[in-house]
Structures are given as structure tokens and as C-alpha cells.
């Protein structure tokens, strides 16, 4: 019997590799069968915290199987050893490439395995606020996991299990009892988030239940704080409500909104003011469009459109071309003043100033002449300068180019970097005369909005930095209700 196996070159009976009984097979037969098993039958259980998380093929872990060497190892088993059955360990290696594949596999699992600790918080049981104890998180220990596999990959395949090492991560605070009394009163108030859209002059309010608000609270090492993951999910839902279905123009910036919430919670305030922001959009060229007309239609300064379409010749546009536009927020870098608004009508050459929805000022102005027009759009007061200076090629003569003085200047947008248009009063020319003799009511400036000097001073003293400026025209229609009201007069 044994001579038959020896002469035929077959593997002795009762020899098993990876669950495959290769006894009685030739080396070639065993090699073929083992390759089949490796490709389709062999699975590795990935074990986390003592429990099987999932199974995967060993090749997915970067393991390489040598069927020929494994068959030879099975053939080398002595017939006496195989009398009661022998399990032969497969020949498995982990090359440098395989090691990187295993590392990538584990890294891709981190979002599934890792989770942050849960800091102590609070919850309502009926009308009673109770403490919610903190819970530990979990973090994968990639280095020891890789080291264990690299040292003996064959053992992993033979056992059918890959153990992923993890470590617990303790919460900052586990017991919030010390804060229970103060949170009891705070969390019972109705919390309101007020979103302000300075372009539309629109306010949106969101209120929450005490249960929802309480779910946003946690206690960390610094005291009462915002539970950011719970709050971020709420912000995502509100962003959907800001836009018509299928659009995503407006949004609340998550980090900006969280900072507002952090400040409110730190001071135990029941209201937080937030800014509604705008995503960047694309513009599809229409009949009659030029780049300068697009700037005036959209309210985005021309040089910013140039910057966002670098490498394109904006003098050559065809219907249907798409331009990349910056977000509207570029024209309003400061926090907007929500209760004040200046509206300038370029067609009527008229200015209105509103506070809390009521008209404060209304008078005639002069905007930019045809060669240096004022840009319609929505901007804001950027600075104050009681005396500012400017110049123009039109003032140049044989004796040089003179400077003019502008009184009560407030910048509102840059024409190009370093050159700003704004509001001002009287303009003293190099020859000692005043622009238009101080008269207003028709386009005559070099791009700014000029008022009679006394009126410009009043506007200067009233409009702080951040006050919104809406400049409307036939090209740029009103976006706010206040600007629309000026058209009814």
C-alpha cells in the first residue's frame, strides 16, 4: 500500500491543507486543487474586539500563496505522521507590495472601526433632565496589527482569522453631574438660530425642541460645549431648506455656524446669529453678452471674473459658453450690518438709506460717467476716510497729472486690486474748483457715488463698516424688498 504511494509519487492519506484533503493526489493534482481553494474557498475572518466583523479573501489582504511549495510540504509528510491525520500549513508570503495592500485595506477600515468617545451629556426623561454618562471610543492600532501579520502570514491563513488590534479612547468627561443644575434652566429655554442673507436682506429663523437642543450639549474638559457631530447633521438639514428643490445656491457654513454655537453655549445664550452664504456658480453666456455686461448683470467685479477664468480670452465669447463665477460672498468680506441698508439707483441717480426698514436718508447723487461707470451689485461699506485722494488721465496736462480730494469717503468695492470705488461728498480738483461745482443728479464721477457734501457727511457718520450697499439699475434688478420699494416711488 505504502509502496504504491511512494512509486506513484502521491501524497500520503489524511494530509489536509486549508481544509482540503490532498491525500492520494499527485503533486500536480494537489497544486491545482489548492489553487482552486485559494481562489474561491479560503476566507479570512476579520476579528475586532473578539467578534467577527466580516470575512474576506486572503488575496484582498495582500497575501500570496505558493501552491507548488505547499504541495511539496504535503508530499514530505511521513506516512507514519499521516496515519492519524496531519494539517499542513500553507506557504503564504507577504511581499512589500502585499504589505502595502494590507496597509491600505486596514486604512480603509478606519472609518468603520474608529469612533470618537462620547462625552458626558444630558437627556430628558419626561420633564426631568438627567445625566448621560460618557462612553469610550475606539481607535485601530494599525502598527501592531501589521507587525503581527508580517511576522507570520501563514498562521493567519491557517487559523482563518485576522485579529485587528484596537485601543479604547476615553471621553474628556464621563460624569456630567456637576453641570446638571445649570443646564436644567438653560436647556428649557427655546433656542433660536437666526440666519441672515445680506444679499436678499432676508432673515430665516429656526427653532428647536428642548430635546434636540439638549442633544447638542456635551461636557468636555473645558466645561459645557457643543456636540459637533449631532449639530452638523442638523445644519445639513437646514441647508436643504434654504434652497428650492434641486438647487444648492445658499448654505450655512458648518464651521462658521459651529463657532457661533460654541460662543452661544459658552455664554448660555438662547439665540445665535448666523450668516447665509452662497456657493460659487457658473454663468452661461447669452445673446448680447460681453464680459463687462456679465459683470454688471451679476454684480461681480470684472477683475474677479477674469481671475476665475484665467487663461480664457474674455473678449471672445459665444452663446452657450460657460464662465466660472466666484461666490457672491467675495463682495461682502465683513460681517454684514443686518438692520441698515443703502440703496443706490443708477437710473434714477438717487440714494436711499434704511434703518430697521425705515427710510433715514433720501437724496440725489451722481454716479460714474460712461467712461468710468459705477458697477451695480451688492456690496458693503469697507472703510471710512474723511479725506481720500484720486486721479485720472483726463486730468493730465502738460504740467502733469493732478490729484483730487474726496471728502467723507467710504469704500465699497475694488475696481481692480488697490483701486476702490465708494461714497464721497465734494471733490476738490487740482485747479481749486469742485467737480460739477458741487452739483449732483447726473453721472459725472469717475466711478464713485457722490452726494452733496453735507449729505455725504451725514451718511459717513451713520453707515458703519459692514453696512450693506445695494446698487440697482436696469441691468441689475433689486434683490431685497427695500430696494424693490424704491421702485414704487
Number of separate helices? 14
What is the count of β-strands?
A: 32
Give the CA-based shape.
Answer: elongated
| Fraction in helix | 25-40%
Main sheet attributes: strand count, strand direction, barrel closure: 5 strands, mixed
Cα distance spanning the termini? 114 Å
Radius of gyration, taken over Cα atoms and rounded to an integer in Å? 37 Å
Give a structural overview:
The chain is an alpha+beta fold and 489 residues long. The protein is built from 14 helices and 32 strands. The chain has a five-stranded mixed sheet. Strands 25, 28, 29, 30 and 31 form a five-stranded mixed sheet that branches. Strands 14-13-18-17 form a four-stranded mixed sheet. α2 packs across α3. It is elongated, with a radius of gyration of 37 Å.
Note the main attributes of this structure.
14 helices, 28% helix, 5-stranded mixed beta sheet, single chain, alpha+beta, 489 residues, 32 strands
Q: Concise description?
A:
The chain is an alpha+beta fold. The model is unreliable at 396-400 (pLDDT under 50).
Give me the secondary-structure topology.
Blueprint: H1 2-8, E1 15-17, E2 20-21, H2 27-40, E3 44-48, E4 51-56, E5 64-65, H3 67-75, E6 86-88, E7 92-93, H4 96-113, E8 121-125, E9 128-132, E10 137-140, H5 142-151, H6 153-159, E11 161-164, E12 166-169, H7 180-188, E13 192-197, E14 202-207, H8 210-215, E15 217-220, E16 223-226, H9 228-241, E17 250-252, H10 254-266, E18 271-278, E19 281-284, H11 291-298, H12 302-308, E20 322-325, E21 337-345, E22 350-355, E23 358-364, E24 377-380, E25 385-390, E26 396-397, E27 400-401, E28 404-416, E29 419-424, E30 427-428, E31 449-450, H13 453-462, E32 467-472, H14 481-486
Parallel strand pairs: 1-6, 3-11, 13-18, 21-32, 29-31
Antiparallel strand pairs: 1-2, 3-4, 5-7, 8-9, 10-12, 13-14, 15-16, 17-18, 19-20, 21-22, 22-23, 24-32, 25-28, 26-27, 28-29, 28-30
Helix pairs in contact: 2-3
Amino acid at each position: 500500500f505504502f509502496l504504491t504511494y511512494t512509486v506513484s509519487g502521491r501524497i500520503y492519506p489524511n494530509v489536509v491543507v486549508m481544509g482540503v484533503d490532498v491525500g492520494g493526489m499527485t503533486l500536480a493534482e494537489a497544486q491545482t486543487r489548492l489553487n482552486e481553494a485559494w481562489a474561491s474557498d479560503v476566507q479570512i475572518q476579520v476579528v475586532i474586539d473578539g467578534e467577527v466583523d466580516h470575512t474576506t479573501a486572503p488575496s484582498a489582504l495582500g497575501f500570496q500563496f505558493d501552491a507548488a511549495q505547499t504541495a511539496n510540504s504535503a508530499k514530505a509528510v511521513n506516512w507514519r505522521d499521516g496515519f492519524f491525520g496531519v494539517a499542513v500549513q500553507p506557504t503564504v508570503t507577504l511581499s512589500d507590495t502585499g504589505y502595502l495592500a494590507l496597509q491600505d485595506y486596514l486604512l480603509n477600515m478606519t472609518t468603520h472601526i474608529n469612533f470618537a468617545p462620547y462625552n458626558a451629556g444630558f437627556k430628558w426623561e419626561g420633564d426631568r433632565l438627567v445625566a448621560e454618562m460618557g462612553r469610550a471610543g475606539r481607535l485601530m492600532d494599525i502598527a501592531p496589527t501589521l507587525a503581527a501579520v508580517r511576522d507570520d502570514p501563514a498562521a493567519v491563513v491557517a487559523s482563518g482569522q485576522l485579529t485587528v488590534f484596537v485601543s479604547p479612547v476615553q471621553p474628556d468627561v464621563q460624569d456630567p453631574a456637576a453641570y446638571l443644575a445649570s443646564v436644567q434652566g438653560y436647556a428649557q429655554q427655546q433656542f433660536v438660530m437666526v440666519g441672515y442673507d445680506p444679499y436678499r436682506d432676508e432673515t430665516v429663523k429656526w427653532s428647536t425642541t428642548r430635546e434636540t437642543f439638549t442633544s447638542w450639549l456635551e461636557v468636555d474638559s473645558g466645561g459645557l460645549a457643543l456636540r459637533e457631530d449631532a449639530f452638523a447633521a442638523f445644519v445639513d438639514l437646514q441647508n436643504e431648506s434654504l434652497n428650492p428643490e434641486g438647487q444648492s445656491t445658499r448654505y450655512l457654513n458648518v464651521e462658521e455656524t459651529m463657532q457661533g454655537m460654541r460662543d452661544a453655549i459658552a455664554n448660555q445664550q438662547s439665540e445665535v446669529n448666523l450668516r447665509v452664504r452662497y456657493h460659487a456658480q457658473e454663468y452661461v453666456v447669452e445673446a448680447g453678452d460681453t464680459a463687462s455686461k456679465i459683470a454688471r448683470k451679476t454684480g461681480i467685479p470684472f477683475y474677479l471674473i477674469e481671475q476665475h477664468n484665467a487663461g480664457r480670452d474674455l473678449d471672445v465669447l459665444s452663446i452657450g459658453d460657460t464662465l466660472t463665477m466666484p461666490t457672491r460672498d467675495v463682495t461682502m468680506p465683513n460681517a454684514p450690518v443686518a438692520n441698515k441698508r443703502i440703496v443706490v439707483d443708477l437710473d434714477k441717480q438717487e440714494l436711499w438709506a434704511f434703518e430697521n426698514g425705515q427710510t433715514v436718508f433720501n437724496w440725489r447723487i451722481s454716479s460714474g460717467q460712461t467712461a468710468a461707470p459705477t458697477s451695480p451689485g451688492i456690496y458693503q461699506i469697507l472703510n471710512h476716510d474723511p479725506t481720500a485722494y484720486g486721479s485720472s488721465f483726463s486730468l493730465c496736462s502738460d504740467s502733469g497729472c493732478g490729484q483730487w480730494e474726496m471728502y467723507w469717503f467710504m469704500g465699497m468695492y475694488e475696481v481692480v486690486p488697490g483701486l476702490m470705488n465708494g461714497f464721497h461728498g465734494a471733490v476738490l480738483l487740482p485747479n481749486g474748483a469742485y467737480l460739477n461745482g458741487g452739483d449732483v443728479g447726473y453721472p459725472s464721477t469717475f466711478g464713485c457715488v457722490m452726494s452733496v457734501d453735507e449729505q455725504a457727511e451725514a451718511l459717513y457718520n451713520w453707515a458703519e463698516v459692514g453696512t450693506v450697499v445695494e446698487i440697482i439699475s436696469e441691468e441689475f434688478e433689486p434683490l431685497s424688498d427695500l430696494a424693490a420699494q424704491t421702485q414704487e416711488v
